């Protein structure tokens, strides 16, 4: 009697017939899209040429023509990347005018902050303990950067600058913009006409004007709106503008999520005897926010880049400190490209990382296990 | 009975009363906040002796605008200066939209190419542009033009009669006469005629079912009015070609470094977004649609034009609208590199007059108005291409 196992064993014992054409077929499959038609062959050649130029240019600038030793004078003569510039200016570009001896404090704060973000990104840790983690992180980074307690010297906000400031502006903007955005999204889909109209006007006005105009408003107009004798810190004013701007965009992402929830969910919640806020908090929002996560991550990437606009109203964010470093009398006009390339690489790493994370989330949600 | 008794207990449990109460509270608090801010502002303005109102718009501006589409001199009014700023904003955004659409379309299709090298290059292009802030690119392009390019005397001739130097891009230009306005009018007339004929012939084909070749008639309608205009007016087509002189370039028209950097920055960054939109639009059309149109005997081009593109457009238009809008709003970054757009002119005006509230109000209203106009137009277009369901 032959069983399935016997057949399997027999198959295993059979000599594997080697396909003599396998190599050729593989070669054919790789080459066909490259040189299948004459046009394709031309495209391939042009692409190879462009890539060659790019690699040659980058390698020449970064390695063969690079100036590795000497000071500003050597870089002025040299044609490639100026490594001494990075050596001299790296800390200024990253930390700006924050007191030099206290740089470890902002560095530690950034490590804490990025660590908390890394933990938050792992779906397994999405529970109430995260709120605790963030409460601790916020207090710790606040104490570290601002000082004034625990024997740390006080550092005024005018000296907060560089990459930490960019992180701070976008993180606080998104963190405080989020609840405001959720409230606005709920208001916009409310049944009460007055509340709906207020939300629509607010959201559409903010989304219809450029961020720079809201920053101008905060830096020039806000002081006029305050009662006499009360001044608002410049950094705080920019932060308020960013929070308001973020809220309007977050509201639209959340509204998209709210619209995707079938009416039956609202009706079922009412039938269970839940009132409006209960049904929103326990039934509708948990589902809507989950749908809104990928667009929300995309908004976050945009905001991290948009915080560079505070340069224009005179705050020392990362882009601004990179530009200030170039105007150092010793280096002026020598390391322009070096500065911008450094800033671009930093932005590229963080934005691309977050973009990949957003794609991971979308894939995960499409599988839809939980 | 019970319901009456319950609703009688307190007004607070009456749903209609609560709805009205909430709305009154919301509107009331906004009115209160507005009134509070208004009193603060009037007090501050009085203390600091700042004038109010829009009277300053008719006063002499006295500042120079380095480039302007409309006629402007420092002796003109502030109102005129702001108009010049608006014209500059619209000018750079319009060119940006055109360039970004063309580039985005090409790169988006390249992203889907079966040639892996081309797809890789397009991918690198999109990611490099999307993940670095536009402002950084603007600074970089501007610095590269001003410090990286040779002086005018050694300007590069990138194409015949197109010069690139540290004072910008010099291109050939037509010497504009009033004749051209008439010829353009005739062109528009021809286009309208051709469109009307096409509509009538389509309607006829649908009712009678007879196919007639339409293109000769449409072509004639398109060509005859401008041809007539040219024959009658006999304009001299003078093209001003830039030539390299001893010290400077003569002729042609000059695109300043600010304009060039802003245009390149805006167009490149928007094109990356548009490429992704085009790609996802084409991907959203199922493979079966291609196969079905081939089964119906359509050629590849016809299948693309008649079957795939109309369906892809449905997916493409709404996000395309928002990327046009953000390009338009991003043109306000011009102030960072000194292109005299609306924001920069308003900023100078505010600094000179001290009337910040009016200045910001004007440019916010202009942006809002133009944004709404763009989105209304795109919504109209979208409703035309959207799925028509019974």
From TrEMBL, chain A:
It is a multi-pass membrane protein. Keywords: Cell membrane, Membrane, Transmembrane, Transmembrane helix, Transport. GO terms for cellular component: ATP-binding cassette (ABC) transporter complex. PROSITE patterns: ABC_TM1. The chain crosses the membrane at residues 34-55, 103-123, 130-155, 167-187, 199-224, 236-254, 296-319, 331-355. GO terms for biological process: amino acid transport. InterPro entries: AA_ABC_transptr_permease_3TM, ArtM/GltK/GlnP/TcyL/YhdX-like, MetI-like, MetI-like_sf. Pfam families: BPD_transp_1. Residues 163-353 form the ABC transmembrane type-1 domain. GO terms for molecular function: transmembrane transporter activity. It is found in: Cell inner membrane; Cell membrane. Gene3D superfamilies: MetI-like. It comes from the Bacteria. Belongs to the binding-protein-dependent transport system permease family. HisMQ subfamily. This is General L-amino acid transport system permease protein.
TrEMBL record, chain B:
It is found in: Cell inner membrane; Cell membrane. Pfam families: BPD_transp_1. Its main location: membrane. Residues 86-378 form the ABC transmembrane type-1 domain. GO terms for molecular function: transmembrane transporter activity. InterPro entries: AA_ABC_transptr_permease_3TM (IPR010065), ArtM/GltK/GlnP/TcyL/YhdX-like (IPR043429), MetI-like (IPR000515), MetI-like_sf (IPR035906). CDD domains: TM_PBP2. The chain crosses the membrane at residues 20-38, 90-113, 134-153, 173-197, 217-239, 259-278, 360-381. Belongs to the binding-protein-dependent transport system permease family. HisMQ subfamily. This is General L-amino acid transport system permease protein. GO terms for cellular component: ATP-binding cassette (ABC) transporter complex. It comes from the Bacteria. Keywords: Amino-acid transport, Cell membrane, Membrane, Transmembrane, Transmembrane helix, Transport. It is a multi-pass membrane protein. GO terms for biological process: amino acid transport.
